[in-house]
Every structure is written in structure tokens, then in C-alpha cells.
Amino acid sequence: MNKIKGKETIETLLPKIQNKVWDRLEMSLGIAGFKMDFPKEIILVAFKEERVLEVYTKDYTGIKLLKEYPFTAYSGKLGPKLKDGDRQIPEGIYKVDYLNPNSAYYLSIKLNYPNEFDKSKTKFSSIDEMGKDIFIHGKAATIGCIPIGDEAIEEVFVLTQKATNNEVKVIISPRDFRKNNSFLKLKI
Predict the structure, then answer these.
(1) Burial class (CB in 10 A: 0-12, 13-18, 19+), 117
(2) How far apart (Å, rounded) are the C-alpha atoms in residues 91 and 144?
(3) Mean pLDDT throughout 128-146?
(4) Is the dihedral of CA 102, 158, 163, 133 positive or negative?
(5) Mind giving me the DSSP string for 41-80?
(6) Are 135 and 109 within 8 A, CB to CB?
(7) Are β-strands 169-173 and 52-59 bridged in parallel, bridged antiparallel, or unpaired?
(8) Beta carbons within 8 Å of 55's beta carbon, 6+ residues apart
(9) Which residues lie across from 70 on neighbouring strands?
């Protein structure tokens, strides 16, 4: 899902997009208490049922919602990713592995799927390959990733790059249980 398309580096890309990203985020950052800089710590939270990615900032005053981005496409259904080719978006707590400025989907952020918890789910099953290459990316196409469009991925990409000195957590939930706390009935 993450074909390389160019020879851009993060260092060459940032000067091209950072000012316009700052202009778009200035009000949201100001409301969150960041007057002259990007936050140093962020948390990305994706809700599959609501099809939204939320970006939270974290500092000494606590955790604040910075901005929401709708998914621009969706594949699979509610429930975890269990095998390669199932078109599912995984569910769990992940970390950002790296940023890709040369994605075929404009820009992308690689998640550490499958992590140890994901791998532990296959211990007592016949599943050999869980899949890989799960990204948050631009454009509006997916077979198990989280696409949020080009302008949105610019913002999330820059925010993530500015927060990479701190581990960037990515939480992917089947639904926003703050709004809908009924439990899923999965058919396996």
C-alpha cells in the first residue's frame, strides 16, 4: 500500500509545506495553548465506526483535542485485522515507525503493525501472515490503511515529525466508546 514515488526527504519536504500547515493550524494550536510552535507530544486516535482521526496534544496541562480529520475512504468492517488481505484496518495501540515523504498516496505515516499484541492473537490459530504496511496517508483509497486526504496528511505529517522526539502513540478503536458504549457483536 505504500509504493515509493520520489526522492524527497523529510528535510527537503518540510520547508515546502510547513508554513502553509502552520497557517492552517494556527487557530487550533492557539486554542490548545501553542502560540509560537508545534506541540512536542501528540497522540493520534482513529475511530473506525465514526471514520475519523483525532489529533490530541499533551503537555503539562493535560491532553487536549487539537483537530479531527475524516477518513476519505474506508475498507473492511468493525473488528480487528487478523490476516493478510482481509482489507481490515487494525485495532489496538501502535507507535509511529517512520514518516514517508515519497508515498504513492502523497505522504504517509507507517504504524508498527503487527505489534507483539497482534502477533500473540495468532499463537493458537492457523493464521500464518497477518499482513503489514499499515499507514495513515493522503489521497482517498485504501485496503486497510487510514486515508485522510492530502491537506490533512500534510498537517498530521508535520505534527508527527515535530513530535518524533517523543514516542507518537496511535490508538485505533472500533468505535468512540465515549459516544457509543454498546459492545460489538463480531461474527468470526
Answers:
(1) exposed
(2) 11
(3) 93
(4) negative
(5) -EEEEEETTTTEEEEEEEETTEEEEEEEEE-S---S-SS-
(6) yes
(7) unpaired
(8) 42, 43, 44, 45, 65, 66, 67, 68, 69, 155, 156, 159
(9) 52
For 19-54, what is each residue's pLDDT tens digit? Answer: 999 999 988 888 887 877 788 899 999 999 999 999
CA–CA gap between residue 107 and residue 144 (Å, rounded): 16
Q: How many residues does the chain have?
A: 188
User: Structure pTM?
Assistant: 0.89
The answer to whether 45 touches 54, Cβ cutoff 8 Å, is yes
Q: Please, which residues have CB within 8 angstroms of residue 61's CB and are 6 or more apart in sequence?
A: 33
Q: From the CB of residue 80, how many other CB atoms can be counted at a distance below 10 Å?
A: 18
For residue 23, give the nearest of 151, 160, 163 by alpha carbon: 151
Q: How far from each other are the two terminal CA atoms of the chain, in whole angstroms?
A: 25
Burial (0-12, 13-18, 19+ Cβ within 10 Å), 120: exposed
* Euclidean distance between CA atoms 125 and 33, whole angstroms: 48
The residue behind cell 502560540 is 35
